[in-house]
Specification:
With 111 residues, the chain is of the alpha+beta class. It has helices spanning 2-13, 53-62, 69-89, 95-101; strands at residues 16-22, 27-35, 38-41, 46-48, 106-109. Helices cover 45% and strands 24% of the residues. Strands 1, 2, 3, 4 and 5 form a five-stranded mixed sheet that branches. Helix 2 (53-62) runs antiparallel to helix 3. The longest helix has 21 residues, at 69-89.
């Protein structure tokens, strides 16, 4: 039974990927659903600080009743870490450095 539980947990962790656009004046967040060897967009990009990107992302995830509360919490916690990091160090940190700090996140951007 333990092996089954571990396998299930691994599958859940790999179901979603947080995507980030790292810019000088904004950071954008979106979630993709992992399908086989690719991904499919699950949410649009939400730009911080243009809007409350965290709340927008939460509202969108809450509409998807097939996503577990645990998965939502993990994604939102990760989004919080990225927003906080961008606020503190975004102007002096390159996208490559941010990618090193958050290796499970897909980054794109201009710096």
């Amino acid at each position: 039974m333990e092996a089954t539980v571990e396998t299930l947990e691994t599958n859940i962790e790999g179901r979603f990927v947080l995507k980030v656009v790292w810019l000088d004046k904004d950071v954008a967040l979106a979630v993709d659903y992992v399908i086989s060897k690719g991904t499919s967009p699950l949410t649009p990009y939400y730009f911080w600080p243009r809007s409350d990107a965290w709340q927008d992302l939460k509202d969108e995830l809450d509409k998807k009743n097939w996503i577990t509360d645990t998965e939502k919490i993990e994604l939102l916690n990760q989004a919080t870490e990225i927003i906080n990091f961008w606020q503190e160090k975004g102007r002096v940190t390159s996208m490559a450095q941010a990618q090193q700090k958050f290796p499970g996140v897909v980054f794109s951007g201009t710096n």
